[in-house]
Each structure stands twice: as structure tokens, then as C-alpha cells.
Amino acid sequence: MSTSQSDLPSSLPVVDLDIFRSEPDSAQAREECKKAADALITYGALVVKDSRVSESDNETFLDLMEDYFAQSEDLLKKDERPEFSYQVGVTLENTEKPKCKSDDDCLRIISRLAPSERPLDITGHGADPKCRFFYKMSTAPPYETQFPSLNMPNVIPSAFEDVWKPTLDKWGQAMKNAVEGVAEMTALGLGLEQQTFTQAGLYGPHLLAPTASDLNKYGKKDTILAGFHSDLNFLTIHGRSRYPGLHIWAKNSGKRIAVKVPPGRYLLVQAGKQLEHITGGLIKAGLHEVVVNDATVQVIEKVKAQGTRPLIRISSTFFWHLSSDYDLEPIQSLQTQAVEVRQKAGEDETEVQTYEKMKVGTQVQK
Fold first, then answer.
1. Are 82 and 92 in contact (CB under 8 A)?
2. Largest CA distance in the chain
3. How far, CA to CA in Å, does 348 sit from each of 43, 110, 341, 352?
4. Which of 24, 44, 94, 190 sits 20 to 30 Å CA-CA off 214?
5. How many Å apart are CA 362 and CA 366, to the nearest integer?
6. Over the stretch 167-176, which tens digit does the pLDDT of each residue have?
7. Which is more confident, 112 or 196?
8. Cα-flanking dihedrals φ and ψ of residue 20, to 5°?
């Protein structure tokens, strides 16, 4: 993309999945596919419109997550599975640490941002003050996987046994359908076969992965809820949160964008490290943070005044992965294009990351 960072709009492109689903071979659908690929190349993110998505399903999911994470720590700990590296069940607050603070490439990106556009300082930030729940939304592979620890059974919280699975399955499937549509559109927009990515992720360890931040404890302005980071999976998709605070950076540089997902049938999609790897760096994993900003504080005060819901920020998140046993390596045509883009931008090739061939499961466990 030749667009300069200063020319970029302050909102993300909206891609219409309905057009692609109704007339996938039409010129209009192909334009939407190109828009999807270009948005991920430029921003590492996009907003997708999908009429199958129900705002009420997201609200039901958020209510359940707020009620679950409002339980005592003793009850939550029963759902921990550290023996599986927390890849299923709950992860309590102050456990997950943003890798960026110890990653030279990530720190270099921050140093090159204008001071006014940098994320909140993570150098003195420890683990994130957020909880998480991992709920698998995957299809078991018809072969013996080399990575069984990534394919463990789900945890069902005892206090929510009757509603947990149907609620998470319904909302998780809606997001899974949408993100797989985006994966197909992106493949076509990049000049690949439509199912290039979805076939590679057929048996991926996909995860519905909501996070929860207790805003009674962590509701002060400029609190870091999730430190500056990128996601290691292929594509991440989010439903609308009830609390603002998500910031992203276009092409991992330039201006900070406060993400606003429109109400209704819209979802946010972000590129992950697996997509970066398979495109040879043509699409970069989107760096982002979640913080308490002025808009977050305004919503906190409103919810406090109403006094009807737990003061917990839920991130309605789904991680879509490539299959654990898939050989992850750059597609040559995309890697060549990535080199051309960097040369046009005058980037230093000595600082370019190399993308070695490896199993996806190895990449996840690194």
C-alpha cells in the first residue's frame, strides 16, 4: 500500500460479508475481497458486517460472562487448568504478561512512534490485571495430532452448567462463521484460492476467549488492562464491548486509533502472527492495547449510577487458528510482494523478521 500514515482515516474500513455470501463471483464481491486484504495490509484490522450476527446474542453472552467473573476467586480457581498451560478454562488476573515489554522488535516500534501516539508505558507494567476464559470451538482432527495439549476438552463451570455451553456455542459459532468468511475474502483479495486459509485452519484449536477486568479495582484512568501486544493466532474477531478502551495502530506505526465497532451486526477483526507468517510479513499482526481512557471512565460512572450489573469489562473475543499440525511457512507470491512493499517504503531489510518453516503448534508453544 502506498498510502502514507498521515493520510489514513481515523476509523477502520468496513467490509460487507453479506455481499460476498450472496454473490461471491460478482464484481462487487471481488471489490469487497480486495478491500478486506488491503485493510489488513494497511491497518492489520477491519470491521466486518455480517447479517447473521445478533446483537442480542452478544448481550446475552456479556451478561453471562459478567455474572461468571463476579464470582469469588475461590470459585473461579476451580476452573483453572495450569497443567494444560491454561489453554482451556479460566486464567486469573495478573497471570498473562504482554510479551512486547521483552521483545526488541516491538519495543523498537514503540520508540519510533511520536510520543503523543505511543501506548501506555509497559516497561514498568507487570502481568495484565485481567482474567480470561478459554473455550474451545474446534473440530477434532481425524488423525493423531503432535500437539494434544492444544486439543483438550472444555471446562464447564458448575454454577452455570445449564446455560454455559448453549450460550458460548451460539455466540462463538456466530463469530467463527464471520471470521472464516473474512479469511476466505482475504485469500481471494490476495490472489489466492478462496479456501487457502480455511482449509489450513480446518482443525485449528479455535478459542472463544473472553477477558474480564474488574473495574472496581482497575477502573482508574490510564490503567493498563491488556498491555501493548499482538495475537499469535491467525485472525482475532471481537464483538462489541460495553466499555471503550481498545486502541490499535495502523501498520503497527503512525497514529493510535480508538476502535469503535458500530452497534448491530458488526464485528472487529485483527490480524495475528500466523497470518503475518504465512504472508511473509505482507500483513503484519496488529499491535493493540486495552486501557482505561476517558470514554471508559464515562461508561463506568454510568453503570455505577444504574447499579444493576457487575462493574466488569468483558472483551468478547474469538481466536481463529490454523491447524496445529499445519506446516506454517510464507506463500512465495505474498513474500515477494512484501519485499516490494518494503522497498517502496524504504524500510531497512536488515531489520526484517525472518519466517522459518515450522508447525503451527510449535509457533503457538514458542
1. no
2. 57
3. 20, 17, 12, 7
4. 44
5. 6
6. 999 999 999 9
7. 196
8. -65, -40
Give 354's DSSP letter.
P
User: Three-class SS of residue 259?
Assistant: coil
84 in Cβ contact with 152 (< 8 Å): yes
Per DSSP (E only), the strands in 151-206 are none
The three cell numbers of residue 4 are: 502514507
Residues 173, 188: Cα–Cα separation, whole Å:
23
Q: Residue 104 above 90 pLDDT?
A: no
Ramachandran assignment for 67, one of left (phi > 0), alpha (psi -120 to 50 degrees), beta (any other)? alpha
| CA–CA gap between residue 314 and residue 249 (Å, rounded) | 21
In the chain, count of helices (H) and strands (E)? 12, 16
| 3-class SS of residue 302 | helix
Amino acid at 291: V
Q: Which of 202, 342, 364, 365 is nearest to 279 (CA)?
A: 342
Residue 220 scores a pLDDT above 90:
yes
Task: Indicate the length of the chain as a whole number.
Answer: 366
Residue 151 pLDDT grade (very low, low, confident, very high; cuts 50, 70, 90)? low
Amino acid identity of 121?
Answer: D
Neighbour count for residue 329 (Cβ, 10 Å) = 14
Pull the grid cell for residue 360: 503451527
Helix runs in 190-293, H state only: 196-200, 215-218, 273-278
